[in-house]
């Protein structure tokens, strides 16, 4: 049985002579070889590096994909594609050639509501040094990040967060206008 997955993809370092935006398109195509099929892809956006000052601007997009894989299997597929593009996990929130994040798996809450809530409520200072040792879904910070929500607005505006109860459109509207405005469209959505 196939599930729908929400993903975010970005990069701010070129690889093999290709600009980050070109890497995104190639990586999305490569996901198919890993049994993850993008069915809707957002426009490509330029976004400031997160956290601020941590590197050059990113090229970012979001997508909806179908897969018969489990959420853990989809995450493994994302990591395999990242590795092919030279992704090295050396610094949390550092510059990277490619970053593919699993944002949500239908309406699943992983590992459970209490585990999700712990990461959602984690103080900003602790986020810089702590990282979960298990998959947390939906992504516990998605509602805070314009670089995730603005592209997701293109492909899944009506998806409803299973814990917070708000749609992508509602969460995006709650982001400060300056943050939303920092996400600038670079290119129209690619054809699949």
From TrEMBL:
On whether Amino-acid biosynthesis is a keyword of this UniProt record, the answer is no
Q: Which domain of life is it from?
A: Bacteria
The answer to whether the entry has keyword Oxidoreductase is no
Keywords from UniProt, A to Z, are: ATP-binding, Folate biosynthesis, Kinase, Nucleotide-binding, Transferase
Could you tell me which pathway this protein works in?
Cofactor biosynthesis; tetrahydrofolate biosynthesis; 2-amino-4-hydroxy-6-hydroxymethyl-7,8-dihydropteridine diphosphate from 7,8-dihydroneopterin triphosphate: step 4/4
Chain ranges of the 7,8-dihydro-6-hydroxymethylpterin-pyrophosphokinase domain:
92-103
Task: Write down the top EC class of this protein.
Answer: transferase
Please state the Enzyme Commission number of this protein: 2.7.6.3
Record-level GO BP terms: folic acid biosynthetic process
Q: Which GO terms describe its molecular function?
A: 2-amino-4-hydroxy-6-hydroxymethyldihydropteridine diphosphokinase activity; ATP binding; kinase activity
Query: Which PANTHER family does this chain map to?
Result: 2-AMINO-4-HYDROXY-6-HYDROXYMETHYLDIHYDROPTERIDINE PYROPHOSPHOKINASE
Q: Which NCBIfam families would you find in this protein's record?
A: folK
Described purpose of this protein according to its UniProt entry: Catalyzes the transfer of pyrophosphate from adenosine triphosphate (ATP) to 6-hydroxymethyl-7,8-dihydropterin, an enzymatic step in folate biosynthesis pathway.
Q: Which family does it belong to?
A: Belongs to the HPPK family.
The protein's name is 2-amino-4-hydroxy-6-hydroxymethyldihydropteridine pyrophosphokinase
**Its encoding gene is what?**
FolK
